[in-house]
Amino acid sequence: MTIAENLAAVRERITRAGRNPDEVTIVAVTKGFDVAVCRGAVAAGLHILGENRVHEALTKMDEVPEAEWHFIGHLQTNKVRAAAGRFGLIQSVDSVHLAEAIANVAPSQPVLIEVNVAREPQKSGADPDRALEVITATAGILDLRGLMAMGPSHGDPMLAFIGLRKLRDEAEQRLGKALPVLSMGMSGDFEAALAAGSTMLRLGQVLFGPRPARSMVV
């Protein structure tokens, strides 16, 4: 199936989940796919592309400047100077230290706070018990748009996704401002994320098929 056909199937699944596809943002995760796939995604109507690695993303940005690019992987502080100000949204701020490093380079950078709602040690993200501290500090120095999370590696993701939504609601009350973006849901669990209130999905395999064994950057 083509990317356009896969996208149509995803939009139909969003509708069956009781949501309006026009009100759910899809970030097409192009990590590991070459520039031709990125261009094909944009041609199919996927105008926001997501990458996990700074160098790979920056290379593709130069080749596909018409796309909006989001950074969705763990951002190391030594890559902040290269990344800050280049992405339409950095979705993976997980500490006050990282937020401050980004603010030193690009104080108007739009960001999300990544929260490790599944409490899995192999995953990045702020500890849910300390996430409000990170949210409050980040909101004062960057353009905070909302929260991001990955579902658990095993089991029902619904509790984790509902937990992120409740944390967002609590943060909005504390800050006195809207945090409209809830980036949660990937190819294997996006229907559960939609049921829990996701406004942004990060989808790769369901759109493009299996990722190539060797990551192609150009």
Describe it for me?
The chain is an alpha/beta fold. The protein has one domain (about 5-210): TIM Barrel. About 40% of the residues lie in helices and about 15% in strands. The protein contains nine helices and eight strands. Strands 7-6-5-4-3-2-1-8 form an eight-stranded parallel beta sheet. Helix 3 (about 55-65) links the parallel strand 2 and strand 3. Helix 6 (about 130-140) packs across helix 7 (about 160-175) and helix 7 runs parallel beside helix 8. The longest helix has 18 residues, at about 160-175. The chain is globular, with a radius of gyration of 16 Å. The mean pLDDT is about 95.
Low-confidence region ranges: none
> How much is the average pLDDT?
95
Number of helices: 9
Strand percentage, roughly?
Answer: 15-25%
Structural domain tally: 1
Largest sheet: 8 strands, parallel
Q: Can you list the strand order of the major beta sheet?
A: 7-6-5-4-3-2-1-8
Please give the radius of gyration in angstroms.
Answer: 16 Å
What's the CATH H-level homologous superfamily?
A: Alanine racemase
Order of helices and strands: HEHEHEHEHEHEHEHEH
| CATH hierarchy, class | Alpha Beta
Shape call: globular
The CATH architecture can be named as: Alpha-Beta Barrel
| Number of strand elements | 8
